[in-house]
Amino acid sequence: MGWENVAGKDGTSIPDEEWERFLRDAAAGSQGAPEEPSARARMVGRRLREETGPPEGWRTGRPPRRARSKAWYAVGLLLAVGLLVVALNPGRVVGWFGDEDADGSSASPLAVPTLRLPTLEQPFRGSPAEQWRDGTAGISMPAPQATGWMTEKQVAQALDRTLSFLAASSLDPDVLRGGRPTKAIALINPHQRDVQDYLAAAFSKPSKDDDPLLMFSRFAQSEVRLAGGVVKTRGQITFREGKRGALEVTSDVTYVYPLVRAASGSHEVARTIARRETVMSWDDPAKVITEPGTFSFVSYKVDSANGGCGGYTGYFTPGFTSDRATRGSGSGPEVDPYDRTTTMDQRMRESGEAGCGTATRT
Prior knowledge:
Blueprint: H1 16-29, H2 39-50, H3 73-88, H4 90-96, E1 98-100, E2 106-109, E3 133-134, E4 139-140, H5 152-170, H6 173-176, H7 182-185, H8 193-202, E5 224-226, E6 232-241, E7 247-261, E8 270-282, E9 296-305, H9 324-327, E10 334-335, H10 344-351, E11 358-359
């Protein structure tokens, strides 16, 4: 998107002698040369909020020369006075142009545009997650009601245990540092043989099919550490009646992890984003072999950005700016990891066999 200087509503320029006279007067009586109207600052600010990387260069143009006309004397004089106000107090003029949110509501006056890069003090700066809630507070819970074989009270207990599993698998500090998710595993039906086989292999010999990251978020403590103690989340838990009268609970949550290198004195912040969906069945013990207070998995999947591609180590491996030259980009489609307008099934179909995609931002 370019920007060009415009004088007058129809694009006609100010006569040269009036412009030159204004420049001489401004140089003699003002503290500095006139600055460009704040429309440019407003456009820059909006662009920077929409993009996480450095903005592309602006294209400026000089107004075309036109035939001189006395009719433009007054217009030129008014514009000159306006530019002088900008020169003397540019901050006030910027404040005249209110900014608007996406829904059209009025926002605060536009501040001087800056690159909103993450810092140790503000690790979510420049991302949608900056406005998200912390930890489990970002996961919406439904009101319980009797479903299948469960009473309303039992459904409430199952929903609470589901939230506990999400916290123990994707938010627990020890697990994030690479520890074994003991609390989360304790909530899984020990009689579900295929899942127990997966868990045994995932932590001893991780692979594409037995990758612990499908269920759990882990980072190698020797490589990276969490920048601060907060993980931002957005998502929800829903439920319905499943097979054999079971309570089927689905969670679909996006987790945003801010990280720095483990080396002392590291300051650059990178973010790994994981959207994880789990579908679990709280079964009727009269119909399914299970243990009290545990659930069986129906399915589990994850879609991650800046967490590494290939090389199944059992840990997310975020990339930093200095890594980009060697890591390259993915071969799959571009994806916005913050986009939650599509279902996980749609997201997985889009990525399909295309290999690693390219995140449009983190």
